[in-house]
Amino acid sequence: MEEHLKNSVTDGQEEYVLNIGPQHPSTHGVLRLVASLRGEIVTNIEPHIGYIHRGIEKMCESLTYPQIIHLTDRMDYLSAHINNEAVCLNVEKALEIDIPDRIKVIRTIMAELTRIQSHQLFWATFGMDLGGLTCFFYGLRDREKVLDIFEETCGGRMIVSYNCPGGLMHDIHPGFQKRVKEFIEYFRKTLPEYDQLLTGNVIFRERTMGIGKLTLGEAIAHGITGPTARASGFSCDVRKKEPYSAYDRIKFNEVLFTEGDTYHRYLVRMDEMRQSMDIIEQLIDNIPEGPYAVKMKPIIRLPEGEYYQRVETARGELGVYIISDGNKNPYRVKFRSPNFVNLSVLNMLSKGFKIADLIAISGSLDLIIPDIDR
Amino acid sequence: MPFDIYDFTSLTQWIDTSLNDRLSPFWAVVAEMAIVGLLILVFYALIGLFLVYAERKVCAFMQNRLGPNRVGPFGIFQTVADLIKLLLVELVPIRNADKFLFNVAPFIVIIASFMAISAIPFAKGLHAIDLNIGVFYVIAVSALGVIGVLLAGWSSNNKYSLIGAMRSGAQIVSYELSVGLSLITVIILAGTMQLSEIVQAQSTGWFIFRGHIPAFIAFVIFLIASTAETNRGPFDLAEAESELTAGFHTEYSGIKFAFFFLAEYMNMFIVASIAATVFLGGWMPFHIGSWEAFNHVMDFIPPFIWYLMKTFFIIFLMMWFKWTFPRLRIDQLLTLEWKYLLPINLVNVVFMAFIVLMGWHF
Known about the structure:
Chain A is of the alpha+beta class. Chain A is 50% helix and 13% strand.
């Protein structure tokens, strides 16, 4: 790592090596980008990861299945609920348990709320990356409402851990439906403010349109998923392709664009917030009656074999791969995290653009560093 | 003149004669210089403290927050507390930095703004130096600040600082042109470069109203270009927090950082003062044609208050677009200047000259 730095300085090339991170305002965590510059123009980006590596996959091997769920919160902390759901769905699939409708619907509502708050934070930080500090406060103002609902429902605001194998930790509270409806009504009013402040702004459009174009072929070749891929026209929404929980019974559109630049990656997320609100509105009034959890054995042992489940987090496709040898601990767990894969195109996208564009592009990929390192 | 009740000339002349009575002419001048210097220094510090507070409050209300509200009523002593903190903070020594240039840079920046403020007419007779080339002097002196910024970036031995300083150099040199040309537009109308006479010429109507469309265009261009010249958002590329951490002053700490910080706010105050003086009539009260009673009431507001009101209105405008717009990219910034503002400005100067020649202004 250090040798690389030395070499590129002493090679006599006219490259100006700038070390962005691990502590930097716009890497959103401890990502380190070694950027080679010619003047202001980026010629090469070398991401150095591992600053927040905690060995989550290895830790999973010595934990039981209900315990693993709490670790997955700490990967993509903005999609905490969806990560939990992925592990639960996988365990339930392995045990061949039938999940009552009530659980499925509540999980879906919570997952969509998670997606909304994640995209709100994306909007807030993306505005800040481009120098519009006010966006940050407007984004967080609305995100607070979702976090309050989470807090009332399960006690946690960001690290929710609301799922457990076979259902939910506990039932929703009596005011849940009312509070969610209030939020949807409120957010339908405040979402146009986002467009007024950022989307329609001339400077914002100039800064993002045509910057960091990702073609459909490149997106598929690099395995990009989530909003980043859908902005390039790659239809990859797991909620549509392989419906889980309650996604098979609701109507929603997969937001697709073909341009694939920074501006459209941003637009996909804006539209997804609207779609998520539609999904919640379809479900919130008809949460079926029933138990909130299926009675499970005190110690969960998966039958010997390999299990894979994928879900759509706010950033793309999260795959959970479990190999079980029949014990209460998994033999091996592998998480296919969307951010790690999405990071791989950063170098390709930002080559030839300016430093300011590099920040905009990495902001539009919406990277969560703990999910890259795990 | 109706507003002669607030004329400071008699006061300053009385001080001058009484000093000359007691002291030899040489020492009288020295004493006057000391008094004026001290007054401007105090004014400078007070305005600096107030502007930091004002910016924090304005941005807080734009961002759904309350802003400082703990130290003193409505948090008005927050900046004083911050200043004390900055004075007590350790000055971190930078290894491999060019020590002399590193230490001298903040002083260049602050002296440049200090020199510029002395040429501004605050009220009738309240004017430190009334040069006959006042506008030219202010433009020249405020441009010196960029040397400090460049030195700071170069001597810090930090890559972010260097990029920030280079951006700042390109930016200020470009936008100087627009600032100069938009002021020239008004100088053509006023026929003088002396700031006190420019104000006096607006006693029958502010230049922004008298100068038709070209004066208004010049005002808008001046507002944009001067915001860029003071390195404020959306043109704060030299600092560019999300790209270059803190740009040219990344390595500065404590009171040296405070100097840059203060200079930024004072530069904003200076350009707002010039805009108020040149376009909005300086300390002249607001009059409407033949509304005698209204005009008379306006006359009773002291000129110094008029001056401050106009200046703070422009400062508020600058804060407004700092806190609503995202930042431009360096190439867009230069495109805006060289491809749009400069040609518009050149045409505007000719247009204004034509109007003055034909006598079409009020």
